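hey so u asked for the seq, here:
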Amino acid sequence: MIIFVGEELRGGFVSEVINKNGDEVKFVNISTGLKDYEHEINLLARNGCDAIIYDIDNIYDEPQDLMAVIMSIRETTRAKVILYSPTINPNNTIITEAVTRGLKNFIDSSTTMTEQKNQLTRCLSDLYERKEHPSIVKIKEKQKEKKLRESSYRTIGIVGTIHRIGTTTQCLQVVRYLNSKGFRACYVEMNSNRYKNIINNKGKDELSYVEKVPLFYSVTDKDEELGFYQCDGIDMYYKADKLPEILDKEYDYYVYDYGTYTDIDFNKASYLKDNLNIFVCGTGITEIDMNADVISNPSYIKSKLVFNFLAEEEIPDFLNSLGDKISHRAYFTKYTTDPFKVTDVLLYDNLLSSIMMEMKKPEEKNEKQVKEKKTKGFRFFRRTDK
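ran it, structure tokens below
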């Protein structure tokens, strides 16, 4: 028996292939998340099921959630997993998640009906187990390229406990500091914070922080399509949906401004995947409770804590109040009047020491480039101003 998770109209070709062999197809038409149908699918498969085909074009779970349920069903039923997808390429996040989990059987619904039937036959005959689907080979190549590219840079995620706590200022301070050390770093706006736009209103009542920059500062370079401005030597991006293109810009460090962690659109999963996590915290009576919430959350146990607006003479007592288990994660900023000028080099020496040790120092990179120039016989210039 074969189970097709999706509409019978779309899975009709499966019946044509299976019925020739005297087998049968059972259809599970879903209208909510796959998890709601897991029990029903397991019951159908309990008397023996050769394969379960999932029409992922009509399942609306998040990729990781969907694959978790699919793998759970496979564990219970021991049935072959086949994904019926409108595209099989690196841009399909469900497919890439499936490939990461070791799945090999796919049917491309964008091909002709004859080809779809042929692909189904190959899946059922274990051909794709022995010789990978051509599209999957390309996806794996892309994944290898991505891993290689990711190994060449580091990401720093910075988020605030509340609004207007100085998160963006700290992001810019970190970028400026890294640039001063000879690395190429940039600022990426990863939040939906918007501010009133009364001056120079050109049809937009609200703008993000980076969008407002050219209204008040001198911009030396820009790319409106990419969402890029360069101000005072700092590269700033405000279109998060352009991140794949931004990551191709070959920076050493990408500093992500996640806004406030209580915002509904805060991307916690992305933040936790960053190489270095930083929380910007306050010490006032209206801010201290939010610090406690973050400090007690197991998800953020590796996050460094940057405290703003605390007088230097008050720091020792404040550290004692945090306790030994927390105080080693605490850092204290000086008052910053200009976000584009580093106010405390020593602070960022300590705050970023661990992640900077992971990257080759600028002079080491330059030595490598000189060797490449001599070996390969071409000119190579490493720019740090763009």
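The chain is about 40% helix and 20% strand. The longest helix spans residues 134-150.
lmk if thats what u needed
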